[in-house]
Amino acid sequence: MERENKKLLILQILKVLKTKSSKEKPITQIEIGKILEKEGVSCSRKTISRNIDYLMEFGYNIIKIPGGGCYYVDDTFDDSELIFLVDCIYSSPAISQKQALDLIEKLADNISYKIKERCENIYKIDEMTRTENKQVFYNIEQINYAIQNNHKISFFYNKYGIDKKFSPRKQEKYIINPYFMINNRGKYFLVCNKENHNDLANYRIDYITCVDVLGDTKIKPITQTTGNKNGVNPAKYANEHIYMFAGQSVTAKLKLSSEKIISDIIDWFGKNVEIAKENETIYATVNANEQALVYWCLQYGNDVEIIEPYQTRDLMKIELRKITKKYED
After folding, report:
1. What distance in Å separates the CA atoms of residue 249 and residue 251, rounded to the nearest whole number?
2. Quick one: pLDDT band at residue 285, thresholds 50, 70, 90?
3. Are 61 and 102 in contact (CB under 8 A)?
4. Distance of CA 102 to CAs 77, 89, 143, Å?
5. Looking at domain 2-72, which of 3.40.50.720, 1.20.1260.10, 1.10.10.10, 3.40.30.10 is its CATH number?
6. Omega into 309 within 30° of 0, i.e. cis?
7. Closest by alpha carbon to 166, among 206, 203, 129, 126?
8. Rounded to the nearest 5°, which phi and psi values hold at 132?
């Protein structure tokens, strides 16, 4: 047993260096010895020094300070990259609280105590509204496999009821032709075609459960879906379907109240939008899903007006009348 412990000692020293040292606070061999002793490992300062030399010879980036002390430099991620990754995990509502904690724990071996302190100023996991679906990673893996191998999939699509419980919308499974996945503002969507339908549909992956790859079936090509005979560019699709509503896109001309709204336009629709000034009035031309565009304009009603196409402008009028009627005395 003692021999086995000696074999593991170099790894235990490496772990201490990774998690307990930094450029701002190097650690001494005596301090390393005390930490190891608390974990039930006893060794001399000379043994620790020799093992640190072995790690350096093997290629680990360990910096020794003249006069004593050393610290580990992580070559995989710099501090800002690790903080960004932790922040992404903290702030993603697409995974459950346990999954978020597990992911951060896996990153912990690469995070020094200094970064952990800084990460405590980021969102607290238990303060966020998160999915209850624990199958998200499994779903992504299965869907990705099906896409790569051109297979159909089946799954239950779920909803929350009055009792706030998560349950299937229908008793039978959906059968789907999967094409690609999109991360839209922190939520994952599957862009696909539902069996016996001709158009594209979008399903939230965190609402999907019990995915099965139908290995004996091949998907319907995306070029056979309505309006997509030349295929679909995923990036363009994501920019046009800002709320991931299904349906066809339109080219719309928007009248803007001022230059201040341009940043919001670009933030939502991308830099491919056309911005022009005509007689001191600013216009933006965007390609967007019609339903999503109307929904978006409702939020920016004081700053944006749909000029064209006329059918989209008329649709906006209908929605506004519906809303006004709700608030009439």
Report:
1. 7
2. very high
3. no
4. 19, 10, 22
5. 1.10.10.10
6. yes
7. 206
8. -95, -5
Q: Quick one: DSSP state of residue 281?
A: E
The answer on pLDDT for 249 being more than 50 is yes
Inter-CA distances, 315 with 44, 93, 295, Å: 78, 32, 10
Distance CA 284, CA 304 (A): 10
Amino acid at 152: K
Look over the chain and give the mean of its residue pLDDT values, rounded to a whole number: 83
Cα gap 69→152, rounded to integer Å? 58
User: Which pLDDT value is given to residue 125?
Assistant: 47
Q: Which tokens belong to 94?
A: 């697409």
Per-residue pLDDT band for 122 (boundaries 50, 70, 90) equals very low
| Surface-to-core class of residue 155, CB atoms within 10 Å of its CB (0-12 exposed, 13-18 middle, 19+ buried) | buried
Under a CB-based contact definition with an 8 Å cutoff, are residues 266 and 273 in contact?
yes
Contact criterion met (CB below 8 Å) for 273 and 286: yes
CA atoms within 13 A on the CB side of 235: 3
Helix (H) or strand (E) holding 93: none
Residue 39 has what DSSP assignment?
T
- Compute the distance between CA of residue 140 and CA of residue 119 in angstroms, rounded to an integer: 27
Q: Tell me how far apart the alpha carbons of residues 103 and 111 are, in angstroms, rounded to a whole number.
A: 12
Cross-strand pairs, 201 = 192
Bridge partners (DSSP) listed for residue 48: none
The C-alpha atoms of residue 115 and residue 196 are separated, in whole angstroms, by 52
Q: How far apart are CA 86 and CA 255, in angstroms?
A: 40
CA 19 – CA 67 distance, rounded (Å) = 22
